[in-house]
Design goal:
It is a single chain. The strands form two sheets. Strands 3-4-5-6-7-8-9 form a seven-stranded mixed β-sheet, with helices on both faces. Strands 1-2 form a two-stranded antiparallel ribbon. Strand 7, helix 8 and strand 8 form a beta-alpha-beta unit. The protein is α/β, with parallel strands linked by helices. The C terminus is likely disordered. The chain is about 40% helix and about 15% strand.
């Protein structure tokens, strides 16, 4: 018994008590199926069982979008950190500091340039992981920077939206970003450059009421919530039951607000085709190819 007690039993106990990492498995919030996190990331955070598109970080979307995952981030201008000296249960500056530490971003918009299907493009991605992707003065300034970068490079601008709306800690300063971003879209149109919007879950509030719905083409991920006010608020206001799938991608496509619904696996190729069709240099490239 001593051999079993001293050697075999401790080995068995160590095997049974081995620590399992907390992030080894992920539970799908739609179908409740469990899957290996590594496998889920390989599938671009799309559930292999039900096709549910889970939230992705800004850097993940950049990596999935550009050729070979290669891109160059664009430096964004600094803005006043707390224009209203706002405080609720915490100071706004403290909230920003915490959000920057957790997300690894300066604010809720990341901008980069690179190639999609071999064509130059500027891509802006809203980071829901940064204060729910809310829109403040930093986002407005970053969006205008993305527009200017696209114009300078004579490249299309693609934006991935994901937002809870305007940032309450900046009050009217946040609301003023709605007309400012609209001006940025007009700058792109005057330059004759494509502006493509990819609507992801959720896209709401002042973002959906401004630059998110001004694209030349609107693409949406499956079953994404796209709205100004959420369904619960509307239901409580009108005191009626809402149609099935109300304010989801499929409902908006049926009613003419969304042009295309595409899964993440389809998006890079789809964006490449659209850039090729809409780019102002596309016809010139085709003529050059025929001449050669």
């Amino acid at each position: 018994m001593s051999w079993l007690t001293e050697h075999v039993r401790p080995k068995l106990r160590s095997l049974l008590q081995r620590d399992v990492p907390d992030n080894l498995w992920t539970n799908c919030e739609s179908c409740s199926q469990m899957m290996l996190t590594k496998e889920l990331v390989r599938k671009k955070k799309v559930c292999p069982h039900c096709g549910h598109h889970m939230r992705a970080t800004a850097h993940e979307r950049m990596k999935w979008t550009f050729d070979d995952g290669q891109y160059t981030t664009i430096d964004l201008p600094a803005v006043p950190a707390d224009p209203l000296h706002f405080r609720d249960s915490k100071r706004y500056t403290d909230r920003l500091k915490t959000a920057r530490s957790k997300a690894g971003l300066d604010d809720s918009l990341l901008v980069a340039h690179g190639r999609i299907d071999g064509r130059e493009a500027v891509v802006a991605v809203m980071a829901f992981e940064f204060m729910a992707g809310t829109m403040g003065s930093a986002l407005g300034e970053a969006f205008l920077t993305a527009c200017r970068e696209a114009i300078q490079r004579k490249a299309p601008l693609i934006i991935f939206t994901a937002s809870g709306g305007a940032r309450m800690q900046e009050g009217v300063v946040s609301l003023m970003q709605m007309p400012r971003t609209t001006i940025g879209v007009e700058m792109l149109r005057e330059a004759g450059l494509p502006y493509l919007v990819v609507l992801t879950n959720p896209t709401t509030g002042g973002v959906s009421a401004s630059f998110a719905m001004l694209g030349d083409i609107h693409i949406a991920e499956p079953n994404a919530l796209i709205a100004f006010a959420g369904p619960r608020v509307i239901r409580d206001t009108v005191r009626e039951e809402l149609p099935e799938g109300f304010q989801r991608s499929e409902y908006l496509k049926d009613h003419g607000m969304v042009d295309i619904i595409a899964s993440r696996a389809e998006l890079p190729a789809l964006l490449g085709r659209l850039i090729g069709m809409l780019s102002p240099t596309a016809n010139g490239d085709a003529k050059a190819a025929r001449a050669s």
